[in-house]
Amino acid sequence: MPGGEVPLHLDLSGSAVGLEGVEGRSPWYLAYLRLRRNKVALAFGGLFIAIVLFCLAGPLWATHVAGTDPNTNHITDTIEIGGEETDVVAPNGTPLGPGLHAKYLLGADQNGRDVMVRLMYGGRTSIYIGVVAALVTTFFAVLVALLAGFYRGWTDSALSRFMDVIWAFPVLLLGIALGTALAVGGLKLGPIVIAGDSLWIPILIIGFVYVPYMARPLRGEILALREKEFIEAATAQGKGSWRIMFTELMPNITSTIIVFFTLNIANNMLLESALSFLGAGVQPPNASWGTMIADGYQTIYTAPHLTIVPGLMIVLTVLSLNVFGDGLRDALDPRAKIRLES
Amino acid sequence: MGRFIAKRLVGMVGVLFAISVIVFLIFNVIPNSDPAARIAGKNADAELIARVNDDLGLNDPLPVQYVTLMKEIFTGQLTSYSSDLNVDEQIREGIPATMSLCIGAAIIWMAFAIVFGYLSAVRAGGKLDTMLTVLALIGISLPVFWLAAILLYYLSFRVQLFPTGGYVPLTEDPAQWAYHLLLPWITLAVLFIGFYSRLLRSSMLDVMNEDYVRTARAKGLSERQVRTRHVLRNSLIPIVTLFGLDFGAVVGGGAILTETVFNINGVGLYAGEAIGSLDLPPLMAVTMFGAFFIVLFNTIVDILYAYLDPRIRLGSSAV
């Protein structure tokens, strides 16, 4: 270039650096560096991991500390608190409240079950449903987005119209309709048969109802990517449609998928708790935080801890996922305006 | 404009038809058990199951079954077999309470969302912004029914500031009506306040960089005038679009949880009670009406928008 020295290497902020240049950094590494700087997001990510570990430790607490499993009733039992024999469930039906005793640390419920143990086991169900349903949603949403965005034409029209129809249902109402319809006899779709009290019923329902919310924005991204030169190059190389979809297009939306996945777990957990509270979600004998609130709400005036404690766990878990997901979005795609509508 | 409306209406009819087919499939085809036994309710005897079979023609081929069910719903013939009450009548009775709840909540959520979002955007990065962001994140992380239960317990039972649920019709006693609905309004609004205030904040931050905002400043408007007349008004466009969709969704079924916990005898409570007794006909009808209401509302919003903003109808006729 004539006249003056033009720096050959530019760093991200645009200022010139020496001729030795900078080391090549992958976008993932840059995202990691940005995430590492966001202490709030990291703290909440840590909180989520702590909650997961807490729930995983359920069996340990149950056998070594509480000495009871989550579903055994102890209505007529007594425990010793401060040298005094105390009823687990008082004669008038009021259960023991929370206190500093190894057994019944968070009190008992109406059936004399240990709330701490149930909280840990219920959390396993809630988080399990949230995560697996998010996997279901992500799988179908990515598939729909790739097919609709890549083939366009009538494939896109058909898939998009179908998504529009699902979109027209309020999420909660669609979940309730499916939940109540399937709760009695279970699901039978061709070779797939699922019992009515299986956890797979709420997982599939929750996974299904959120597909359009994730598929729509992803489809938009695919439509834009599809016009780029590298797709043309791949086609020229003779790559097949499926190879282009999965080796060229999908890697380019991975960061969006990760963010959606994280935020989707939070939404799934809220929907699960709502469905379970209404009786259209997790069915007995399984317990989740939602069903614990549904049970506890019956006696909120005499034993409020049965409602407050599982609800607080839901709030903490969902909040941690929302904050962490937000941080993840900022780190992975600082300029994008992607958001999961709900 | 006429062509646009016609196109939207045809599309709407198509979606409504698809919705009714899906509702039919959900309740009558997909589940792995005898539909007559499920629709008859929990404690049905053989005679009642036979009556259900007869009423809904459940031995007919599927397309005929579909037509029979739609006829029952739209002519107001559908009955709940557990309670022997007409479903359409029950839904109609619930509408005033549901509308009272939803309209009140919508006013609260828009008012607070605009104030919070505006303050957040104007003070972006500052302490107030951080505080409002934290509040918004907590708001969108609260399970609605749990918030309702906690508010009832502390404010109605412990402090006895509010009534413990129930609904008083507006025509009977307006003061009691508002007094009974205040907590439910707040409960229903919290989630949306969190969501909308964050949306408005990012929308306003985008608009602030637009050229016409710079022009407004350059021609000597005060900062306050720039913010309210130019930034806020233009930032409200996406919010108002979303409001149309969300309000439809809340009326169409989003208020079930709030109505159930606060014992407001609207459409949502009716549906909520039907879930408890696994009474399917009310759920079929509520799902159908809820989805219909949303589609209708969306179409109205679309047409209004096309009327207000010519770019939309020109854009869509070009496609």
Give me the secondary-structure topology.
The complex is a heterodimer of chains A (342) and B (319).
Chain A: H1 27-37, H2 39-56, H3 58-66, E1 78-81, E2 84-87, H4 115-151, H5 153-168, H6 171-183, E3 187-189, E4 192-194, H7 200-209, H8 211-225, H9 229-236, H10 241-252, H11 254-278, H12 289-297, H13 305-332
Antiparallel strand pairs in A: 1-2, 3-4
Helix pairs in contact in A: 1-13, 2-4, 2-13, 3-4, 4-5, 4-7, 4-8, 4-10, 4-11, 4-12, 5-8, 6-7, 6-11, 9-10, 11-12, 11-13, 12-13
Chain B: H1 2-29, H2 35-40, H3 46-56, H4 62-74, E1 79-80, E2 85-86, H5 87-122, H6 127-141, H7 144-158, H8 174-207, H9 211-218, H10 223-254, H11 256-262, H12 267-276, H13 280-308, H14 310-318
Antiparallel strand pairs in B: 1-2
- CATH architecture annotation of the domain at 91-276 in chain B: Orthogonal Bundle
Count of alpha/pi helices of chain B: 14
CATH evolutionary superfamily of the domain at 115-331 in chain A: MetI-like
| Morphology of chain B | globular
Share of helix of chain B, binned: over 70%
Largest sheet of chain A, described in full? Answer: 2 strands, antiparallel
The portion of residues assigned to helices of chain A is 55-70%
Shape designation of chain A: globular
Biggest contact: A-B, 54 and 56 residues
Q: In what order do the strands lie side by side in the largest sheet of chain A?
A: 1-2
CATH architecture of the domain at 115-331 in chain A: Orthogonal Bundle
CATH fold label of the domain at 91-276 in chain B: MetI-like fold
Spell out the CATH superfamily of the domain at 91-276 in chain B.
MetI-like
Cα distance spanning the termini of chain B:
15 Å
The topology string of helices and strands of chain B comes to: HHHHEEHHHHHHHHHH
Share in β-strands of chain B: under 5%
- Strand elements of chain A, count: 4
